[in-house]
Every structure is written in C-alpha cells, then in structure tokens.
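Lab meeting minutes (informal)
Scribe: AK
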Amino acid sequence: MTTRHFACKTADVLRDAPKIVSVSNLSIGIFSLNDGYHALLNICPHKGAALCEGPVCGTTRQTSDREFVYDRAGELVRCAWHGWEFDIRSGEFLVDPTVKARRFDVSVEGDDLYLHI
C-alpha cells in the first residue's frame, strides 16, 4: 500500500534539472519529461551516489553502420560518480535492466505534485 505525499509545485520542476525533495526521510528526484513527471530515489544502486544530482542526458546508440548517434536526449540520468545511465521513466540501468533505481509514481493535482510511497 502506498501513501500520497505532497512533494512540490509543478513550477518547481524544470526541464533537464530535477527537483530534489525530501519526503518520508527519502531524498527523491522529480523529473519533468514530455509525457509527464517521474521520480527516482536519489541513490544510485551501484555505489550509493546521489543519482539525481548527475546530468540529465541521452546516450549513444549504434546504427547499422559503423557509427553512433546521440539518442534519447533528456530521458536519462547519469550517475555523477561512475557514469551509469538510468532510464528516468523506469529506473532501469541501460546496460543491465535487472539493475534498477527505485522509482515512485507521481500524480498531479492542479499545480501540486504528489509522490506515492
């Protein structure tokens, strides 16, 4: 069972810069993407760094040729300590989807954002 907690105002969450809030003694990063708001625990599952304080970015994807293209701009957060890249929507580590950052559901009511913990 989850409990709804007020997190912040929608205006507090900027594109490409998560709003980090403290709710129920948890540090949580709230991200604004083109499909809505998403939240991740601000702890990298690799070594415990402040995951949400890393850059919001994309990643390189190999094409059928011998080249790479930059893809998924603004949909990933990269751990500042070791560069591990996580999908903001699912919390999945790109290299091994079985490794996940903890994610939380976010709901919007008017101008208020709520986390479901």
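Next up, CB showed the second protein from the same session:
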Amino acid sequence: MARSTILIADNSCIIRKGLRSILQNLENSEVLQLIDNKEEVCEIVNSSKPDILIINPNMLPADCADLKSKFINGNKLSLVLLSDKKKIKEEYKADAYINYLDEQDVILDLLQEIISAKNKNAIPDKNADTISSREKNILKHITLGLTNKEIADQLFISIHTVVTHRKNITQKLGIKSVSGLTVYAILHNIISMDEVK
C-alpha cells in the first residue's frame, strides 16, 4: 500500500501538534509538515503535493476562494477542514471535516477511510484494507480472548465504542465467530501464531 502524506495547517500550536500526535496512530501515513503561517499555505501545498491537507478555514489565503480546485490541479489532494461548523464541508467543497470535539477514534477512522479510498486500486487483498487501523487493533484484542470491557479498559475507550467497532468488523469481513476472526487475523499478520493462546 502506498504511504499517504499529510499536511496540517492551523494557527493553533496545540491543535497542530495534538493532531499530529493522534495521526501517529494512523497506518501507512506520514505528516510531512505543520503549517502555522497563512501566507505559506498555497506555496507549501503546491511544492510538497500532499495526499491530504487538513486545514482550519481561517488559514485559507484570501485568493483561495475555491481551495480544492486551486490545489487539486496535479495534486489529487483530499481536503479535510478543521472546524466546529457542520456545514463547512459543503461550503468549501471539501472531502471531509473534523470537528474540534471529535474523539481520536472518529478522526483516525475518517482519515483511514480517505487513505483506503486513495489506495483502493493498489490493494491486492480487499478485505485486509477494509477495516481501519483502529478496527485491526480491536480485532487483535478480540482474538486474544479479551472481553469488551477488558478491551475498553486497555484502549481507554467506552464499551459502546468497542461494541460498535466489533459490529463493524463482523459486517465488513463477513466473519461472525471468534475462531474465524482469529484465522483472518493470523492470515493478515494482525496477530502471530505465538500470540494465540
């Protein structure tokens, strides 16, 4: 799978660095640069040609009214906006938006979907990339025999989130039994034979 590159542009140091920290848990991706200067956005995007630009709309240069069409020429850029306004995505014709209040899982799943869609044609095993990095992590814990509560405690998430991920994994893979999921996890190097009790 090709490695996706990401730029983060926000005028808040805490948000830039916090988001970069979260994205370190995203597979097959790399944060190229953090941008804190509104005037440099166009130049850096056009020179580094990232796969994904995550940007606060307040960082948009005045001459970039239609940001995506300006940047997308030759870049195949996915535009993700950082905002607390739900309608911002349509306003700027963006591919997605991240709310400042979104949980880490929501952000990772959103970006994993974008990356998977970008790599769709290069994926030899469709099932292996159907589930997100977080779902693979949940799957690993399931195959180790942990209960929903134990998984929630280890990953610092709610039981409801674990149950939702578990349901999504089952639906996406079409595998309902733990033994079937274990075989899948071994075949796709999510877990090794030595880890299975």
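CB comment: The CA atoms of residues 1 and 135 lie 18 Å apart.
No objections, moving on.
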